[in-house]
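Hi W., the GN1 complex you wanted:
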Amino acid sequence: MKEAIYHFPVEGKPRHCEQIKSGHINETYLITTDTGARYILQWINRYVFPNVEAIMSNMSAISHFHDTVDRYCQFRQAIAADACGRLNEVRPEVEFLMEREEKGCRLHHMRESGELPTRVTHNDTKINNVLLDADSRKALCVIDLDTVMPGLSVFDFGDAIRFGASTAAEDETDLSKVSLDLELFRAFTRGFAEACPALTAEEIDALQLGAYTMTLECGMRFLTDYLNGDKYFSIDREKHNLDRARTQLRLVRDMEHKWDDMARIVAEEAKK
Ligand code: GN1
Ligand code: MG
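Structure:
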């Protein structure tokens, strides 16, 4: 463990190592350094997980999922390549996203600075990923676990709002139907705050930015994919990804108009 710990960027000098006996598979150790910083090291059980490299490459393959800074990078690459000659058609959408880069990346920096804690998050909390009981209509469980990873609580809040508090379908072509339903926003905020009593004051303050960021990022991902030739998201019709991008950007704009109302609702429902 002494040797292993030096492979990680720890704060201070490791002073103490204590085995934590609660797991059955991997060996778990708590390392404390002279600054009081605490780290968990695990010795992976090679009988159960013979291919440790595969575990690690899986982790690194999914780690930048809701990394909006990285998403902007991919967006810029798609613009530069303009692989399908679609750029001219989407100039207003490109401009819209570029104007919002600073605000769109704010959460990412709050995560990096430690202002917001990293949690285990689902990252794809649209309502069709909740299994409902056919009779009672009550939620049974969350499904679609391919994107479960470390993330921000407000990603899960935000993605649920992006999808579930919109007045229109994700691929609606009549943009006049797309807006944020503030009553649904209120109901979800209340439920989320009740179900997550351990949220910090900073996380609660960031809820609406979570909704904004997830919507913006999703719109950018759809537009990136449209520019790249619809390789990532499956489509059922021509310009399907462009339609999806446009609904998300319309929702972003609506959130900007409703920003003060959203803040008031968060204060009323989550700061009691
Ligand atoms: C994808 O696979 P599905 O439909 O649950 C995407 C999400 C997007 C969502 C948009 C792995 O989710 O990130 O928010 O589409 N999943 C992946 O509807 O990229
Ligand atoms: Mg999914």
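The mean pLDDT is 95.

W.
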